[in-house]
Task: inverse folding
């Protein structure tokens, strides 16, 4: 690029600064909202199989703890008025319903995964998947008790409805998220370099 073109580029498109953070948070929210629409219902349980957990841990690992937290907090709030939740659901009833604990858990999971990534656990595929796995555990630690209380069921039924059908899919999603992380880093790096 010649110097005149470079000068024109920066005159028209100044450095993004805080706008880069906003764009990353919005992109994270959008990724989770899009992943929520990949949803399959399992007969007998109110908890659908979705691609959300993939997106939640990927957003946390790629964006870090603060932007990951912000993305998922925005997702939770936006879903109260926009059709962001699985199958285009929206509203406060979704947050306080049977799957509300999972939604709350998404915020904690993205924050923890981002925190671990900031401490270097995102450097290798195995440690990145390990950090994402811990984020996934947080989702279940928030979601399962909430589900049990909402449905008024015992421990065995809670596991049957809210954990057992999802284990194999979660393993696959964690591997895909780990493999997708380098691509997510490139996008984040480009926005960070535009500051």
Result:
């Amino acid at each position: 690029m010649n110097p005149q073109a470079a000068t024109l580029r920066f005159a028209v498109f100044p450095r993004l600064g805080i706008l880069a953070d906003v764009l990353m948070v919005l992109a994270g929210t959008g990724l989770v909202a899009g992943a929520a629409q990949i949803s399959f219902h399992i007969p007998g349980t109110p908890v659908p199989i979705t691609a959300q957990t993939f997106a939640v841990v990927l957003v946390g690992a790629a964006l870090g703890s603060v932007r990951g937290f912000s993305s998922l907090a925005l997702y939770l709030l936006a879903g109260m008025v926009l059709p962001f939740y699985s199958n285009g659901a929206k509203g406060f009833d979704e947050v306080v319903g049977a799957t509300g604990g999972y939604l709350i858990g998404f915020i904690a999971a993205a924050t923890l995964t981002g925190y671990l990534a900031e401490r270097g656990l995102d450097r290798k595929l195995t440690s990145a998947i390990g950090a994402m796995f811990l984020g996934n555990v947080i989702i279940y630690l928030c979601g399962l008790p909430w589900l049990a209380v909402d449905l008024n069921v015992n421990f065995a039924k809670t596991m049957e409805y809210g954990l057992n059908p999802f284990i194999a899919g979660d393993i696959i999603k964690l591997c895909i998220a780990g493999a997708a992380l380098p691509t997510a880093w490139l996008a984040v790096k480009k926005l960070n370099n535009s500051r």
